[in-house]
Design a protein that fits this description.
This protein is of the alpha+beta class. The protein folds into two domains: 2-75; 98-170, SH3 type barrels (Roll). Helices cover 58% and strands 16% of the residues. The chain has six helices and four strands; from the N terminus they run H-H-H-H-H-E-E-E-E-H. The chain has helices spanning 2-10, 12-41, 45-70, 76-92, 94-109, 167-170, and strands at 117-120, 123-130, 134-140, 149-157. Strands 1-2-3-4 form a four-stranded antiparallel beta sheet, with no helix packed on it. Strand 2 and strand 3 (134-140) form a beta hairpin. Helix 2 packs antiparallel against helix 3 (45-70). The chain is elongated, with a radius of gyration of 27 Å. It starts with a helix and ends in a 6-residue tail after the last helix.
């Protein structure tokens, strides 16, 4: 027994692992208690679900903070590696990230909806689909006179540069 206590007192990595394990167990236990208590005060099922998700998310953040505090002395090199990797991923996926941001702007600000006739970058047509990465437009006009469809389906990235601030002025004023 003395040998085990001496090993525990000398080995800091073992101590840190035990501290993290005990901390995680305590945080998850408290999270479960709070979830049970919160359900009693919320009547609507959708709000119960959201409350439980928020409590779970918050407990995971606390666990991450606990781990970072316990291992703060050893995170110096890891933080540099994570930062460089994150910058590389962000650079490689910049169009995807911008498309997601553009989609969020389209959906929250209601620039246009499915069925609206729009003119984007010289292309006039009806919006068929608004996806996370692409917006699909059925083109009208061009080599056909009038407002008839010419058969072209065009997929544009949902980039903010594709949808300028004057987009509302470019709308042709009617929906299908």
């Amino acid at each position: 027994m003395d040998n085990l206590l001496e090993e525990f007192s000398n080995n800091q990595d073992l101590r840190r692992i035990i501290y993290v394990f005990i901390g995680i167990v305590v945080i998850l236990f408290i999270s479960k208690l709070i979830k049970r208590q919160s359900v009693k005060y919320v009547s609507e099922n959708r709000n119960k679900y959201r409350a439980k998700k928020f409590i779970s998310f918050f407990s995971y953040i606390i666990i991450i903070i606990l781990i970072s505090i316990v291992y703060s002395g050893k995170l110096g090199n890891i933080s540099v590696i994570i930062g460089v990797t994150g910058a590389g991923i962000a650079f490689a996926l910049q169009e995807v990230i911008a498309s997601i941001a553009g989609w969020m702007a389209i959906m929250t600000n209601n620039f246009y909806r499915t069925g609206d006739r729009v003119q984007l970058g010289g292309i006039t047509g009806d919006v068929i689909d608004i996806g996370i990465l692409r917006t699909t437009i059925m083109e009208t006009g061009q080599w056909i006179n009038g407002d008839l469809y010419n058969g072209h389906y065009i997929s544009l990235l949902s980039l903010p540069s594709t949808f300028p601030p004057l987009l509302l002025e470019q709308m042709l004023g009617y929906s299908l």
